[in-house]
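Fold Annotation — chain and its backbone

Encoding — discrete vocabulary of local shapes
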Amino acid sequence: LCAWFHDAIYVPGLDNNEKASQQLWISFCEDAAGRIDPELRDDVSTIILATENHVSSRTAYPKGQYPTLNAFLDLDLLVLASPATRYQEYADGIRHEYEPVVGGPSVFAEQRSKFLSSVCSGDKAMFALCGPDAETRARNNMEMEFKLLQQQASH
């Protein structure tokens, strides 16, 4: 249910997609007229909202306290730890999706660079359960993308 609903509402550039997706989940539960366990409803709501900021959510819900949430967050970010060619396909998709929304290639490069820099400069782990190899691959991929964006900006 988390996988189905966490990006049920997704509009590029909108900053409340997670909240809107969570509200859709709650409406679904209400429409189910008591057939969804309240604990399940609350757990799915928590996980949907946690996808807004994975690192902060990991701080709020440590690995041992909420393993389902941490497993889902790992799965949601796993593309970042893909082999370099697959990550590049992902990064190209992000660029094609967001360039028109933010105002073109130069604005996208600037905003994406800031995002990548902030994620890579932090010492917080992105993955709770996938281990250090996934963390290293993800950081390497994002650093490579950051360098490419910087090269493109200088031309």
